[in-house]
């Protein structure tokens, strides 16, 4: 009996082992094996055709996997503020799905205006969950191009004029998104600072400005945020398109920064096979299209990294070194995303996501002016509220180009104000003006019918009459997402508000002293009425929860704590790019009609160099309308005298500045303590101050907290183009601490040895 049992057990064991042997997981699919080994194993199994197929799109937003080996496709999706609606396989048009509505989060200008790194993580995590649930592997965001001119159509998608603020706010967003097994694609590397001529321009920027202003946020995204992909821009730099650019992609990104991730082209940003092979591109999208509308059907075999590449290899004109490097990067990406068995499942339109959208909006709204504290609205006195302006009723989650969304819902300003105030006050609406009554953008229908054919003076008089007989007037205007406003593919044509809003605002200031202007926009605008309007609120594009976030601030439920991520110049000529040029491009070339097509590119010289935004205004002493870092509160704060832990530091030291912030008012609130550094004596021209630290402090009435900010010599350095390295010159420096770039409260001198 025993013998029989032993014999049978042996047979069973041998048989099981043999099965196990047959079904041993191949290395490229075996999670227990090191990634490098899996990559090499996958490469060894792939044919030439399969490798080349992975390098480019197979549809509008997807690229091929290896069906034979079970290596999945990559699915990308716009955009930085929410997951874009599904489009047809080969078209920009909507696919008409009914399961792809999502939460629209606030635009990244609003996120930046929170100056709250934790909020940025929450944002990225929530957005990443929605992308994950929609089975997307690469989220085409965040956009982090620096705010150089107030006319740039896409500023609303980015994080402002300062490289340090943008770096600190982009990194947690990237980490939050990628915690879902969804890659970010930080864009647009590196000089897409305007929309005009974006396909047909060559940017000229000196190395110092490049390394001090335009690259730092991308470097942080790579070295701190570990973004798994980077998106190349359209325009040229040193006469090479940025998505196939030796300098930007090989020398800097993959060279100096040792980037191991994937470089994706912008849609339609590639135009040369050899350059795409040699100059660091890994994944080609959108060729044969202008990146926004038109495209050639099924051009995929003709992509620059498709048949043309295969032909060059087969003819022996190029080797396969670059090919294997590109595919290795894509396989590494796959093991983090498509082939990552441990990634969470995501979620859409959860209460958490709605809360994140509402909170980012509440903390991002900037109270620019509040004379006589007429805000928050005092419901003991105010019984009738007039809401005036098209932006109180116009959906803003749609439009603007590739960041346009099909939101599950959008609480409009008027809805939000009504739902918050209706119990205690009578809320009435008047259109005031007609701007853009359209209800469809890139095929996404808002479903609104904003048509109103009444003449402008009738609309104005109706608004003024309502204002006269109301206790409080809220004007909700600003810009919108139509062309030549806050939209991709075109820049604004002027700095002022469109649709004659200035005229209406002026009339309303005469009608009622209890008057607040709310600007729904993603850019600075001229404010000729600024002296006559007691309260001004910068309300951004706040997504699905817009009306709730705005009403929460107007009612005082939320004490505003937002700070401007970019300067509001009084007039356009006060801006460096418009004072020194070049914008929109070289004058002579512009006059000669350059920039109309890629055969006749136009040069854009960033003559202002490092003097962008407050760096320009402070150094030139040009008083802005509202400064970088500016934002009021419903309470008041006091800064204690700052001290440093040393007065002299060596090149290898750190130095810590400590100070207190006290809430000296009667409402709980938050203050953003900002640390700027001034180099009191330098061998090169330097801005009078540069942001090098910030902390957001939440305080109850009367509460005081000690804040410490530590820096090292990198915060003192400038980029020496001749040495091609950062230099911290010994000498005297000053730490300037305050709650706005033009509101320094305390200073500490110190010396670098
Ligand atoms: C667009 C944009 C880019 C977007 C891509 C896909 O042209 O420049 O930001 O992600 O194409 O829509």
Protein described:
- The chain has 753 residues and is α/β, with parallel strands linked by helices.
- The protein has a 6-stranded mixed β-sheet.
- The N and C termini lie far apart (88 Å).
- Alpha-D-glucopyranose binds next to loops.
- Alpha-D-glucopyranose is lined by residues 78, 140, 187, 266-267, 291-292, 402.
Task: Please sum up the structure shown.
The chain is an alpha/beta fold.
Hetero groups? alpha-D-glucopyranose
Q: How far from one another are the termini?
A: 88 Å
What would CATH call the homologous superfamily of the largest domain? Glycoside hydrolase, family 3, N-terminal domain
Overall structural class, as computed from helix and strand content, comes to alpha/beta
Please write the CATH class name of the largest domain. Alpha Beta
Tally the helices.
Answer: 20
* Low-pLDDT segments, ≥5 res: none
Produce the secondary structure layout:
Layout: H1 2-22, H2 35-45, H3 48-53, E1 62-63, E2 74-77, H4 108-114, H5 117-133, E3 138-139, H6 163-178, E4 183-189, E5 201-204, H7 207-214, H8 216-223, E6 229-232, E7 236-237, E8 240-241, H9 246-256, E9 262-264, H10 273-278, H11 307-314, H12 321-336, H13 351-364, E10 366-370, E11 384-388, H14 413-421, E12 426-430, E13 440-441, E14 444-445, H15 456-468, E15 472-478, H16 501-511, E16 515-520, E17 535-538, H17 546-555, H18 576-580, H19 587-591, E18 602-605, H20 614-620, E19 637-639, E20 643-644, E21 648-649, E22 654-663, E23 669-679, E24 690-699, E25 704-712, E26 718-720, E27 725-727, E28 731-738, E29 744-752
Parallel strand pairs: 2-3, 3-4, 4-6, 5-7, 5-18, 6-9, 11-12, 11-15, 15-16, 16-17, 21-29
Antiparallel strand pairs: 1-2, 7-8, 10-17, 13-14, 19-22, 20-22, 22-25, 23-24, 23-28, 26-27, 28-29
Bound molecules: alpha-D-glucopyranose (GLC).
């Amino acid at each position: 009996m025993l013998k029989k049992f032993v014999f049978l057990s042996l047979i069973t064991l041998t048989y099981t082992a043999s099965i196990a042997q047959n079904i041993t997981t191949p290395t490229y699919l075996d999670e227990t094996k090191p990634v490098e080994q899996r990559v090499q194993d996958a490469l060894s199994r792939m044919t030439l055709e399969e490798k080349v197929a992975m390098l480019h799109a197979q549809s509008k937003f997807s690229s091929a996997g290896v069906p034979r080996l079970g290596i999945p496709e990559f699915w990308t999706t716009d955009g930085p503020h929410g997951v874009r609606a599904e489009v047809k396989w080969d078209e920009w048009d909507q696919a008409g799905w009914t399961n792809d509505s999502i939460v629209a989060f606030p635009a990244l200008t609003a996120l930046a205006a929170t100056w709250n790194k934790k909020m940025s993580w929450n944002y990225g995590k929530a957005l990443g969950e929605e992308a994950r649930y929609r089975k997307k592997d690469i989220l085409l965001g965040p956009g982090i191009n620096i705010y150089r001119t107030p006319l740039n159509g896409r500023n609303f998608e980015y994080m402002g004029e300062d490289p340090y603020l943008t770096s600190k706010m982009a990194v947690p967003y990237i980490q939050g998104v990628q915690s879902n097994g969804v890659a970010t694609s930080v864009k647009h590397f590196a000089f897409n600072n305007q929309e005009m001529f974006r396909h047909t321009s060559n940017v000229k920027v000196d190395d110092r400005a490049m390394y001090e202003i335009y690259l730092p946020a991308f470097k942080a995204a790579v070295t701190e945020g570990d973004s798994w992909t980077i998106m190349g821009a359209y325009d040229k730099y040193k006469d090479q398109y940025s998505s196939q650019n030796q300098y930007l992609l090989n020398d800097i990104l993959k060279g100096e920064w040792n980037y191991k991730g994937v470089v994706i082209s912008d849609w339609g940003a590639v135009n040369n096979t050899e350059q795409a092979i040699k100059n660091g591109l890994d994944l080609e999208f959108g060729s044969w299209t202008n990146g926004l509308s038109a495209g050639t059907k099924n051009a995929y075999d003709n992509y620059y990294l498709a048949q043309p590449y295969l032909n060059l290899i087969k003819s022996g004109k190029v080797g396969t070194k670059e090919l294997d490097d590109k595919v290795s990067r894509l396989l590494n990406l796959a093991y983090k995303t498509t082939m990552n068995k441990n990634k969470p499942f995501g979620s859409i339109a959860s209460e958490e996501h709605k809360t994140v959208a509402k909170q980012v909006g509440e903390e991002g709204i900037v109270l620019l002016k509040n004379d006589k504290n007429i805000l928050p609205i005092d419901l003991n006195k105010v019984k009738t509220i007039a809401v005036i302006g098209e932006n109180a009723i116009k959906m803003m989650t749609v439009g603007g180009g590739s960041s346009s969304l099909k939101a599950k819902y959008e609480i409009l300003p008027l809805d939000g104000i009504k739902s918050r105030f209706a119990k205690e006050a009578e809320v009435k609406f008047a259109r005031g003006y007609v701007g853009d009554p359209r209800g469809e953008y890139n095929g996404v229908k808002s479903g609104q019918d904003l048509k109103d054919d009444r003449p402008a003076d009738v609309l104005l008089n109706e608004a003024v009459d309502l204002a006269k007989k109301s206790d409080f007037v809220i004007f909700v205007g600003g810009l919108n997402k139509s062309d030549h406003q806050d939209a991709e593919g075109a820049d604004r044509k002027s700095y002022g508000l469109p649709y004659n809003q200035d005229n209406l605002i002026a009339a309303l200031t005469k009608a009622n002293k209890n008057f607040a202007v709310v600007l729904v926009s993603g850019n600075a605008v001229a404010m000729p009425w600024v002296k006559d309007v007691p309260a001004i609120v910068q309300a951004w594009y706040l997504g699905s929860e817009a009306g709730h976030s705005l009403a929460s601030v107007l009612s005082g439920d939320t004490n505003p704590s937002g700070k401007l991520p970019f300067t509001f110049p009084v007039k356009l000529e006060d801006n460096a790019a418009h004072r020194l040029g070049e914008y929109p491009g070289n004058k002579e070339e512009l006059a000669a009609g350059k920039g109309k097509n890629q055969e006749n590119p136009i040069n854009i010289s960033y003559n202002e160099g490092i003097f962008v935004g407050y760096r320009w205004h402070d150094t030139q002493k040009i008083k802005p309308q509202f400064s970088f870092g500016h934002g009021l509160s419903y309470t008041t704060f006091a800064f204690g005298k700052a001290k440093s832990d040393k007065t002299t530091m060596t090149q290898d030291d750190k130095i810590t500045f400590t100070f207190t912030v006290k809430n000296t008012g009667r409402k709980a609130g938050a203050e953003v303590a900002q640390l700027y550094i001034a180099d009191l004596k330098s061998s090169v021209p330097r801005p009078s101050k540069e942001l090098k630290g910030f902390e957001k402090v939440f305080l109850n009435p009367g509460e005081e907290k000690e804040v410490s900010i530590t820096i090292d010599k990198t915060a003192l350095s400038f980029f020496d183009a001749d040495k091609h390295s950062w230099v911290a010159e010994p000498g005297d420096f000053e730490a300037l601490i305050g709650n706005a770039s033009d509101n320094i409260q305390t200073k500490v001198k110190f010396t670098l040895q």
